[in-house]
């Protein structure tokens, strides 16, 4: 399975369960990183200011991002959540990159599913910035969902819930206006994953790296066959040498006639 944003988040794992060889292997993969460096709150705030330079964002939100980053790094010592641990790299690649979608898409009053949330990206940064939408952060790895649950409680995010499930199973039961997929898989594999539940969502939003156009072309036939239509592409650069991104917005079959 190809990964959209290299090493920034794990792809969805196998179906939740215990006592299997797959679960044992997963537990090994999730072994914490006890040597994870944990910058001070001040260092993380400074990193956020560097990453968000030139953006219209309140300082108190950057402080909350920094506090959440510190929380993630602390948990990273117990559970392998992210390979990105430098303060500036985290600020750019996890927080700025996640938050950018709020500049492009109106989420007011919408039900948003972060599918394959991992450590809570992009869902937690977006939810910290937007209190007027309802967020569900889903992952198929129970240990990661427990971390998300802790962050929801710690940061008082009453408009956010965490779900331990496979994305397809959840969408078979619950409809959402927007489904976010960041660092999960390729365009083609993502639409294939959602093929049986494609009427349960209106917009499918994917974060991609600089080769996004090649992925779009490779997945074009499959997307069209399943009724996903590329509506908008938002391109932007992260600061300095931290990379370029594109957010792809596909209209899903559930939006037909809307």
- Beta strands, count: 7
Helix content range of the residues, please?
Answer: 40-55%
Catalogue the unreliable spans.
1-25
What is the typical, i.e. mean, pLDDT?
A: 89
| Cα-to-Cα separation, first versus last residue | 33 Å
Order of helices and strands: HHHHHEHEHEHEHEHEE
**Main β-sheet: number of strands, strand sense, barrel status?**
7 strands, mixed
Structure characteristics:
single chain, 258 residues, alpha/beta, Rossmann fold, seven-stranded mixed sheet, 10 helices, 19% strand, disordered N terminus
Give an overview of the whole structure.
There is one protein chain. With 258 residues, this protein is α/β, with parallel strands linked by helices. The protein has a single domain, classed as Vaccinia Virus protein VP39 (Rossmann fold). Helix content is 40%, strand content 19%. A seven-stranded mixed β-sheet has the order 3-2-1-4-5-7-6, sandwiched between helices. Helix 7 links the parallel strand 2 and strand 3. The radius of gyration is 17 Å and the shape is globular. It starts with 20 loop residues before the first helix and ends in a 7-residue tail after the last strand.
